[in-house]
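Request:
Um, any thoughts?
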Amino acid sequence: MDKLKKVLSGQDEANSDGTGILERANEASTLAWGTRMKGFAVCFVLGIVSSILGSCMLWVPRVGLAVFAVLYSVGNLSALASTMFLIGPCRQLKTMFAKERALATVIMGVCLALTLCAAFWWKNNGLALLFCVLQFLAFAWYGLSYIPFARDGVMKLCSMCF
């Protein structure tokens, strides 16, 4: 009865503790741990295979670079989406756009889109390859943000080399 009163008065329990509709949907559709691990493994392996297959297609004349750009981008998306099975989509998006990862996430997404634009609309192979390299660097920088002090170590190493 109390819950009904809260809902009717506009003080819904979900809104009072700060959770929104996405969080409630995420909680309602939880998967078993074994299913999460299987989904993660399948998505991650598909991402790796797609990226390797794309790298092999790089050397095919005329169409190789466009196919590489697509397969490499799909591989990155699949590898990134695989972690959603482990922690859930809402938490994944929150961590992706956390203060320390937001710039790398945005650069990775922009480079992914620009890679596909360069490969299909602009038909510029050099630009597609450049955006793939930038996409790789942004993805690596994003991944390093999960390891404590890894970014600082890489910056220190680069400053010593240059």
About this structure: The two ends are 68 Å apart (CA to CA). DSSP finds nine helices and no strands in the chain. The chain has a mean pLDDT of 85.
